[in-house]
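hiii so um. not sure if this is the right channel but i have a protein structure encoded as tokens and i wanna go backwards to a sequence. like what aa goes where. can anyone help
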């Protein structure tokens, strides 16, 4: 068992062999996780017929300590933790289904703006993929990718998913599980279908060849209009304006001072700060 308290700020521990996540406090427990099955993930894979375990990830949604039980209803802020396997999915690195967030409809805002989200790595290592397409509603097959950004992250690091960017999480360490948390607004449902229609995002991270000829790299997904935009790499930066500090877990900060995370549910005044948290190379 590995304690995840240092990076999450919560009394939890994780078993990388069995994928079990549990509370270390007697009078407090985690909610039952929702399961993601391999069969549900197949439509977004480069190799939809690949072999793999039945359960591919566990989503513990709406976690809160008893003293913060009213936070979600009062502010809209919801805290989740997800546990991902590290198995390769055919030739592809392990990844999540990927989704877009819908546009915020009740704002007096002149541009189409969707809800953001913030991720934090608790165990393992990952690559967050951020993809912007020309219009998430007009073209079911998302013909044109406008922007494609990847962000590497290690335990303790937080990464903002800015508005209007769909996101996929890739486990960067095959064979090793990944645990991460997020703060997200509870006022919407994510939009998954278009990612399945295009079999994932614009670029797939794959490993091909055997032995000495084994190579990993990004491969263009032909279901999008070619050529695709170049892959841009970004580094995540500490951003105090968003309540994000490296080395300081984001659960206790947001739970104690939810106003610091107001941007998660009301992003319109924080666009600049969100982009300032990503240093594009
Ligand atoms: Fe999301």
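sure thing!! here u go:
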């Amino acid at each position: 068992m590995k304690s995840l308290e240092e990076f999450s700020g919560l009394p939890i521990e994780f078993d990388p062999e069995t994928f079990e996540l549990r509370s270390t406090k007697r009078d407090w427990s985690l909610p039952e996780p929702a399961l993601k099955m391999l069969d549900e993930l197949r439509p977004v894979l480069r190799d939809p017929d690949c072999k793999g375990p039945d359960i591919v990830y566990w989503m513990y949604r709406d976690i809160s300590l008893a003293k913060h039980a009213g936070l979600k209803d009062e502010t809209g802020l919801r805290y989740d933790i997800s546990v991902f396997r590290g198995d390769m999915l055919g030739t592809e690195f392990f990844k999540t289904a990927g989704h877009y967030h819908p546009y915020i409809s009740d704002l007096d805002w002149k541009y189409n703006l969707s809800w953001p989200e913030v991720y934090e790595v608790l165990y393992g290592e990952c690559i967050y993929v951020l993809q912007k397409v020309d219009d998430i509603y007009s073209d079911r097959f998302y013909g044109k990718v406008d922007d494609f950004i990847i962000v590497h992250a290690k335990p303790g690091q937080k990464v903002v998913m800015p508005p209007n960017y769909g996101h996929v999480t890739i486990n960067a360490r095959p064979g090793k599980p990944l645990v991460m948390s997020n703060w997200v607004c509870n006022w919407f449902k994510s939009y998954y279908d278009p990612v399945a229609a295009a079999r994932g995002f614009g670029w797939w991270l794959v490993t091909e060849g055997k032995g000495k000829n084994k190579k990993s790299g990004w491969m263009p997904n032909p279901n999008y209009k070619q050529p695709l935009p170049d892959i841009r790499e970004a580094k995540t930066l500490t951003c105090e304006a968003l309540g994000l500090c490296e080395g300081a877990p984001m659960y206790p900060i947001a739970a104690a001072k939810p106003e610091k995370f107001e941007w998660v549910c009301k992003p319109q005044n924080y666009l600049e700060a969100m982009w300032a948290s990503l240093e594009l190379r």
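oh and The domain at 2-280 is CATH 2.60.120.10 (Jelly Rolls).
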